[in-house]
Write a structure and sequence with these properties.
The protein has 118 residues and is mostly helical. The chain has one domain. It is 65% helix and 0% strand. It has six helices and no strands. Helix 2 packs across helix 4, helix 3 packs across helix 4 and helix 3 crosses helix 5. The protein starts with a helix and ends with a helix.
Length: 118
């Protein structure tokens, strides 16, 4: 999963929008056979999106807003009530410490293994 943020480190609104678009395209492809609107309130789905963002988003900014933006791009039918519920789910997951990015040791191990397997 290598998105635009690895190159640009989103700092302005245009690069953040491009990053959100890239993440949404990746996730739409991954979930192409699933009706995502049915899963909008499932904590496991919100957690998956949040972890993708946590692992990839390197810019200074609100990761919660980035998560909501990606979910809006994935599920265009979301309304304000849906967004409020999803924000509550995100807050609960964040408070419980479940939203975490990959550890630096895992990233280092993966890059070393990929180097030696070339």
């Amino acid at each position: 999963m290598k998105f635009l943020s690895k190159i640009l480190k989103p700092k302005n609104s245009v690069s953040v929008l491009l990053w959100v678009r890239d993440v949404a395209i990746y996730m739409k492809d991954k979930f192409k056979d699933v009706d995502l609107y049915e899963h909008r309130y499932k904590p496991s789905f919100v957690l998956h999106v949040a972890r993708v963002i946590e692992a990839d988003y390197r810019g200074e900014g609100d990761k919660k807003k980035a998560c909501i933006d990606v979910l809006k791009a994935l599920i265009p039918k979301l309304n304000e009530t849906d967004i409020a519920v999803i924000e509550g789910i995100y807050d609960d997951l964040s408070k419980s410490g479940r939203i975490t990015g990959p550890s630096s040791i895992k990233i280092l191990k993966k890059s070393v293994l990929s180097y030696f397997h070339k």
